[in-house]
Amino acid sequence: MFRKDITGQKFARLTALRHSGGNYWLCACDCGNQKKVISADLIRGHTKSCGCLNSETRVAIRLKHGGCGTPEYKSWHAMIVRCTVKSWPNWKNYGGRGIDVCNRWRYGENGMHPFECFLADMGNRQEKFTLDRIDNNAGYSPENCRWATYSENLQNRRTTIRVIFNNQEMTLIDALSLFYGSSTGFKFLRTRYVRRRKRGMAPQEA
Description:
The chain is an alpha+beta fold. The strands form three sheets. It has a four-stranded antiparallel sheet. Strands 5-6 form a two-stranded antiparallel ribbon. Strands 7-8 form a two-stranded antiparallel sheet. It is globular and about 70 Å long.
């Protein structure tokens, strides 16, 4: 009998992995769990997750602070996804290289939902701030996380280029700001710097 191949297709939080007999498909949920689902329920939108969506909905209702959907909740959820969902595009730079989330923020503590723990430890996120790990080789925990501006986060990445300027080691963007008086045109200057370094020029010359 003809059966529609939905391998690789995404339905809400579920991605079809392979046919699992009869009308069932084995699916991967965005939360990291796997679940067998009837194909018709996937296609018609009757089943949208492994069950985590219903759990989160119940949690959102009972959270006293009503934090679900806030900037803080989005940061927490993104943190969980990048460290636990192997199908996430940038997995290799987070969970794939051993970056994890502390138990308190992932599983909760003393009857508190993990997001409640996260919010209690981190506080509210200011506008234009983002979640940043102080040590990029360590995981997400109260001791290693802060709310940082985009500029601070950009300078704290593993890919951040560091140079020697005026006999001091600093990030490239800081050196450009000192040299030109501002970081205007940073993208262009960074591209030019990288291109010249690839040609073999010394950092001071580039």
